[in-house]
Amino acid sequence: MPRRNAEKGEGNLGCILWVVLLAFGLLLAWKMIPVKVNSSELYDYMDELARFSAGKEAPEEIQKKLLSRSRELHLPLDKEHCSVVRDGDRIIMSVEYTVPVEFPGYTFNWHFKHDLDRPIFIV
User: Fold this and answer.
1) Is the pLDDT of residue 79 over 60?
2) What residues contact residue 95 under an 8 Å CB cut-off, 6+ apart?
3) Of 9, 26, 42, 98, which shows the fewest CB atoms inside 10 Å?
């Protein structure tokens, strides 16, 4: 009876390709998930400021807090791309920044833009 090479379990090329794909996926996750988490934390902080500080503090103070928090989160936000405006009974915040995510041989520039428009509840 003739033996078939495909049935001997010697197909190592497929296993190697899957290991390389898995390693590439893990590298992507390792580099990109912290950036996304920090960006989400900044947006949550914006929402928190809009809910609790907008009625008590000047927009300039809120902007300073946003810039300080972005430095803590290692996000490259500058004053020119961070705006806080009080319009009547609403607070409007906008931030825009680009985070360079470095991979071996390539740098991906991940652009974020967060806009927030909330009513001010004065208690």
Assistant:
1) yes
2) 42, 46, 66, 70, 77, 81, 82, 83, 112, 113, 114
3) 9
> Residue 7: what residue type?
E
What's the structural domain count of the chain? Answer: 1
* Residue 112 counted as domain residue: yes
Which of the four pLDDT bands, split at 50, 70 and 90, describes residue 2? low
Q: Compute, in degrees rounded to 10, the torsion defined by CA atoms 41, 47, 48, 54.
A: 140
Which neighbouring-strand residues pair with 87?
Answer: 90
pTM: 0.81
Tell me the two tokens of residue 120: 């001010």
Q: Which helix (H) or strand (E) holds 46?
A: helix 12-52
Q: Within a domain: residue 85? A: yes
Burial class of 2 by CB neighbour count within 10 A (0 to 12, 13 to 18, 19+): exposed
